[in-house]
Write a structure and sequence with these properties.
Layout lengths: L16 E4 L3 H7 L6 E4 L2 E6 L4 E14 L6 E4 L2 E5 L4 E16 L3
Antiparallel strand pairs: 1-6, 2-7, 3-7, 4-5, 4-6, 4-7
Length: 106
């Protein structure tokens, strides 16, 4: 398999990654239960990520539309999601979200 080369200066390479149903040991390794919690009700939200965020959804359903793209990434309850620093996107929340989250400090 060829690896994709990425250019960090291009916003088109800012990709949301979704890890579906991570194992309990993976969640424990990340110490997720010590992370702060955040929630929102259904609706559309314009978000800009000034730092990389990793979050684990306890409940909810989201379609995230990166700015300037017609494609979306869908994720929901049980997913571990990484959102890259510098990404602007619209979250179309169809089921209220409750999540643990962590921002990378670097």
């Amino acid at each position: 398999m060829a690896a994709e080369s990425s250019n960090p200066t291009s916003s088109h390479n800012l990709r949301i990654t979704v890890e579906r149903n991570p194992s309990e040991s993976r969640l424990n390794e990340l110490n997720i239960k010590c992370w702060p919690k955040w929630g929102c009700s259904p609706g559309k939200y314009q978000l800009k990520f000034d730092a990389e965020e990793t979050c684990y959804l306890l409940r909810g359903k989201v379609k995230a539309y990166p700015k300037g793209s017609s494609e979306f990434v869908e994720f929901g309850a049980g997913d571990l999601v990484t959102i890259p620093k510098g990404l602007s996107c619209t979250w179309d929340v169809s089921v209220a979200v409750d999540k643990y989250y962590k921002f990378e400090s670097n």
